[in-house]
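Narrative of activities, Objective 1.

The group set out to show that a structural description can be obtained from nothing but a protein's sequence at a throughput compatible with the screening campaign. Below is one input-output pair from the validation batch, recorded exactly as produced.
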Amino acid sequence: MKKSLRARAVAAAAALAALAPALAQQRSTADGIAEYRKMLEDGNPAELFEMKGRELWKQKRGPKGATLEQCDLGKGPGVVKGVFVELPRYFADTGRVQDLESRLVSCMETLQGFNAAEIARTPFGRGEMANVTALATWIATESRGMRFNLSQAHPEEKKSYEIGKRVFFYRAGPMDFSCAACHSQKDIRIRLQDLPDLTKNPGDGIGFAAWPAYRVSNGQMWSMQLRLNDCYRQMRFPFPGFGSDITVALGTYMGVNAKGAQSIAPAIKR
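Output recorded for this entry:
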């Protein structure tokens, strides 16, 4: 009897092993990637950057020895809840459309006395630029689960959207690439990376609604400005300036297109 049961168990295991490749083929690659990312979500290292950003917001720093608690990110001094899903937007005090990172640098300059141009020249992940990323990560967390709703009420916001749209489709460089080369179609990817269609609402937690994000492959926290910087690198373009009108316009274009999408930032990426 025991031999019979053992034999049947062995036979069943062999049958399952034989069926495994077929079953694996039946599952879509996208489902497999989604499951992989779900497994990574537990213990997202972005939490460490969130904590650092929360502390930096309240720390008295810079030549003026002040905190950032009076920084106006669009909803009034000190308000962080819900601001991430409404940026980029126009700010009257700077006369510019700004995204979260460039706005933070403006506040660091006016409130704390830091040199904004110097911060903009600092490589990602170093010095005050690393602090900007941590702050952006925490502030994005405060809007997690909310829906994107960027304003297009001001003429400069409309202008930023139109510039972003033109830049998105602009082809140039040695490879004749554009943002649209990878992000204007459905169901395509590079290696394990999905390439969502960003010319329209790609859905909850996809594209613009997922950054800042922690990159597992290099152990780094990536802001949207760094994400765009790397996109330009892959297109063989010169790197854009941090917080430039071009990068902010691209953020406006993608953010407006993502209207109604739910933010999952900070996300985790391969």
